[in-house]
DNA sequence: GCGACAG
DNA sequence: ATCTTGTCGC
């Protein structure tokens, strides 16, 4: 599958999402996790470049073992529901130069918890054909009831037809919950359990949190582009 | 027409 | 996402 992300229009992007939707595989996550990865994007306010990063952590101890950083020019604007078309190109480059491939990737955004069930986690997962899941800080689509205020509490995120599309998970006591949904090659329950196992002392899972730190240092010039082993 | 709206 | 300091609460 070859996608020209540079001259794509939103209507064409919508059509692509509808076509890609049928390629998503939602199955229980089987096998052992030795490595989990996180992804993130950062950019300067009025720049046409984005800074992308992927961090690989050992599992279940969650220690960073390697990371990939890359800067790339982007043309697609940020439009709610089309985040993948803006961030995936850079993430694919970072993925290709990642010498150590993880067993599952945590994306900063949604998976199937999307108007057309094609959030960035599903989009990226289908393209790399690997297990992925989305963990977002805010809801994009769906209906839910607030989970209890204790860490570990969660509720189901439903679409307009009352079909489950993800989980609203409280990762810390009395702190705003995160929105977890499967991307590709995993399901709702397993994607939630994986995120729970990636929580230490912060609201966001370690893969996402550490990658955000690396990418920001990269954007500020404190780290170099490329693949790095720790 | 109004409200919602990942990063 | 990014622009930005201190401040309130557990």
UniProtKB/TrEMBL annotation:
<comment type="function">
    <text>DNA repair enzyme involved in the repair of deaminated bases. Selectively cleaves double-stranded DNA at the second phosphodiester bond 3' to a deoxyinosine leaving behind the intact lesion on the nicked DNA.</text>
</comment>
<keyword id="KW-0378">Hydrolase</keyword>
<keyword id="KW-0460">Magnesium</keyword>
<dbReference type="GO" id="GO:0000287">
    <property type="term" value="F:magnesium ion binding"/>
</dbReference>
<dbReference type="GO" id="GO:0043737">
    <property type="term" value="F:deoxyribonuclease V activity"/>
</dbReference>
<keyword id="KW-0963">Cytoplasm</keyword>
<feature type="binding site">
    <location>
        <position position="108"/>
    </location>
    <ligand>
        <name>Mg(2+)</name>
    </ligand>
</feature>
<feature type="binding site">
    <location>
        <position position="40"/>
    </location>
    <ligand>
        <name>Mg(2+)</name>
    </ligand>
</feature>
<keyword id="KW-0255">Endonuclease</keyword>
<keyword id="KW-0540">Nuclease</keyword>
<dbReference type="Pfam" id="PF04493">
    <property type="entry name" value="Endonuclease_5"/>
</dbReference>
<keyword id="KW-0234">DNA repair</keyword>
<feature type="site" description="Interaction with target DNA">
    <location>
        <position position="78"/>
    </location>
</feature>
<dbReference type="GO" id="GO:0003727">
    <property type="term" value="F:single-stranded RNA binding"/>
</dbReference>
<protein>
    <recommendedName>
        <fullName>Endonuclease V</fullName>
        <ecNumber>3.1.21.7</ecNumber>
    </recommendedName>
</protein>
<dbReference type="GO" id="GO:0006281">
    <property type="term" value="P:DNA repair"/>
</dbReference>
<keyword id="KW-0479">Metal-binding</keyword>
<comment type="similarity">
    <text>Belongs to the endonuclease V family.</text>
</comment>
<dbReference type="GO" id="GO:0005737">
    <property type="term" value="C:cytoplasm"/>
</dbReference>
<keyword id="KW-0227">DNA damage</keyword>
<dbReference type="InterPro" id="IPR007581">
    <property type="entry name" value="Endonuclease-V"/>
</dbReference>
<dbReference type="GO" id="GO:0016891">
    <property type="term" value="F:RNA endonuclease activity producing 5'-phosphomonoesters, hydrolytic mechanism"/>
</dbReference>
């Amino acid at each position: 599958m070859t996608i020209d992300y540079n001259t794509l229009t939103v209507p064409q992007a919508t059509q692509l999402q509808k076509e890609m939707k049928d390629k998503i595989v939602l199955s229980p996550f089987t096998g052992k996790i030795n490595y989990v990865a996180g992804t993130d994007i950062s950019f300067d306010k009025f720049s046409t470049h984005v800074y992308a990063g992927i961090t690989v952590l050992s599992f279940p101890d969650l220690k960073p073992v390697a990371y990939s950083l890359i800067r790339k020019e982007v043309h697609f604007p940020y439009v709610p529901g089309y985040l993948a078309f803006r961030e995936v190109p850079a993430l694919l480059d970072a993925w290709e130069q990642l010498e150590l491939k993880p067993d599952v990737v945590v994306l900063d955004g949604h998976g199937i918890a999307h108007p057309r069930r094609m959030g960035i986690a599903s989009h990226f997962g289908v393209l790399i054909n690997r297990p992925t899941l989305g963990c977002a800080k805010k809801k994009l689509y769906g209906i839910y009831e607030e989970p209890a205020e204790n860490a570990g509490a969660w509720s189901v995120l439903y679409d307009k037809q009352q079909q489950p599309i993800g989980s609203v998970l409280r990762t810390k006591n009395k702190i705003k919950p995160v929105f977890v949904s499967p991307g590709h090659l995993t399901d709702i329950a397993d994607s939630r359990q994986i995120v729970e196992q990636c929580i230490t002392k912060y609201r966001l899972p370690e893969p996402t949190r550490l990658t955000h730190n690396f990418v920001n240092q990269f954007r500020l010039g404190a780290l170099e582009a490329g693949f790095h082993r720790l």
